[in-house]
Amino acid sequence: MIILKNYPLKRFNSFRLNAYARYFVRVHNVDVIPELIYKINSKLSKFCVLGGGSNIIFRPKYDGWVLRNELLGIKVFKENEDFVWINVGAGENWHNLVRYCIDKNWGGLENLSLIPGSVGAAPIQNIGAYGVELKDVFVSLNAMNMHSGQMEFFDLDECEFGYRDSIFKRTLKNQYIITSVNFKLSKKPKLNIEYGAIKKKIEEKKLDQLNIRILSDIICEIRTGKLPNPDRIGNCGSFFKNAIIPTAKYNYLKTVFKDIPSYPTDDPELTKIPTAWLIQECGWKGKNFGSVGVYKKHALVLINAGNAQNEMVIEFSDRIIDSVLEKFDIEIEREVTIY
Ligand code: EPU
């Protein structure tokens, strides 16, 4: 195990912020984790697990251990005529997994194409896009308890998934390192094309044939059309969550803001409002604050417009939160995690 000190994290966070980890370790093998736990606990240090770094804003100095999860492997552990169950190392790149499954004609992940990040990070925030969430294909995960050094197993219910949320963002935050994730995929894929933007693309292209590969390509096209490529412009995808507010409040807001868009939720008492719209209405779309900006094609995305400083990103996002609160009386939340 190689322990690197004062290690630069710029390459390891998709916002491309300058930050340093006091200690940095690449975890390639589950067997090294007990030694790591001993070292971290004996120094009473804090730690964070890093996947693709696509949902993280680091403060300039992380005074603890950054553990880069590089546990790899994709294995089939069960199959029948209709389904296949796979176990995937948490360090695998998410989009590579999606493409791998498409090549095998295993359906279920195609709507989640091109989401940046790693497999191990996916359950933490229950990634979702275009009508599908991770929980729809998730079976269970294996994770090491960072206090006891024991491997533990979490099934669907135990993960307590919600909208961009799981138990690993709440009561079990920073207590586990996810080592692998188990998925159930379909050998006879059913396509999920209900999302408006997908329907529109299918009509535009006058497609008479559709399969998971074509659907994945459509989704990649929609995403690249409106979201910045993190290899060129530093960003974390959606910086904020969509807002979920009482339906009664939405009905009132609608009398003042006639065009306010909304989506129903599973609970009729609650309504989802696209935060991108709230931010846009506050006039932030395409605006810069020093070297941080709101992306010109999508108001939910903050970008590194130069050499953005960590504290400035946080301050800018605070200003956006304040202005949405002032105008709509809605307290929007960051989707990204700040370390
Ligand atoms: N909108 C605006 N202004 C904008 C962009 C969007 O007003 O600049 C409004 C429009 O009314 C639009 C609505 O927002 O119809 C929804 O926009 P979009 O379809 O782009 O989806 P989103 O709610 O902004 C969510 C996820 C994305 C995911 C898309 C597609 C969250 C926080 N974000 O975005 O996930 O790709 O749906 O399903 O739930 C991510 O999490 O990083 C991410 C990109």
Largest sheet, described in full? 5 strands, antiparallel
Order of helices and strands: EEHEEEEEHEEEEHEHHEHEEHEEEHE
Q: What is the mean predicted local confidence, pLDDT?
A: 96
Detail the poorly predicted runs.
Answer: none
Radius of gyration: 21 Å
Helix content: 25-40%
**Total number of distinct structural domains:** 3
Number of strands: 19
From the spread of the alpha carbons, the general shape counts as globular
Biggest sheet strand order reads: 6-7-12-10-11
Features of the shown structure:
Uridine Diphospho-n-acetylenolpyruvylglucosamine Reductase, domain 3, Uridine Diphospho-n-acetylenolpyruvylglucosamine Reductase, domain 1, globular, single chain, 3 domains, Uridine Diphospho-n-acetylenolpyruvylglucosamine Reductase, domain 2, alpha+beta, 339 residues, binds uridine-diphosphate-2(N-acetylglucosaminyl) butyric acid, 4-stranded mixed sheet
Detailed description of the structure:
With 339 residues, the protein is an alpha+beta fold. The chain has three domains: 3-69, Uridine Diphospho-n-acetylenolpyruvylglucosamine Reductase, domain 2 (2-Layer Sandwich); 74-186, Uridine Diphospho-n-acetylenolpyruvylglucosamine Reductase, domain 3, CATH 3.30.465; 234-338, Uridine Diphospho-n-acetylenolpyruvylglucosamine Reductase, domain 1 (Alpha-Beta Complex). 25% of the residues lie in helices and 27% in strands. It contains eight helices and 19 strands. It has helices at residues 33-42, 94-103, 156-159, 196-205, 212-226, 247-256, 275-281, 310-328; strands spanning 4-8, 20-27, 46-50, 56-57, 61-69, 74-79, 83-89, 128-129, 132-133, 138-145, 151-155, 176-186, 243-246, 263-264, 270-273, 288-289, 292-294, 302-304, 337-338. It has a five-stranded antiparallel beta sheet. A four-stranded mixed beta sheet has the order 1-2-5-3, with helices on one face. A hairpin with a 2-residue loop joins strand 16 and strand 17. Helix 4 (196-205) packs across helix 5. The longest helix is centred in the last third of the chain and has 19 residues, at 310-328. The chain starts with a strand and ends with a strand. It binds uridine-diphosphate-2(N-acetylglucosaminyl) butyric acid (EPU). Residues 129-130, 164, 197, 237-238, 241-242, 261, 274, 276-277, 280, 285, 298-300, 335 line the site of uridine-diphosphate-2(N-acetylglucosaminyl) butyric acid.
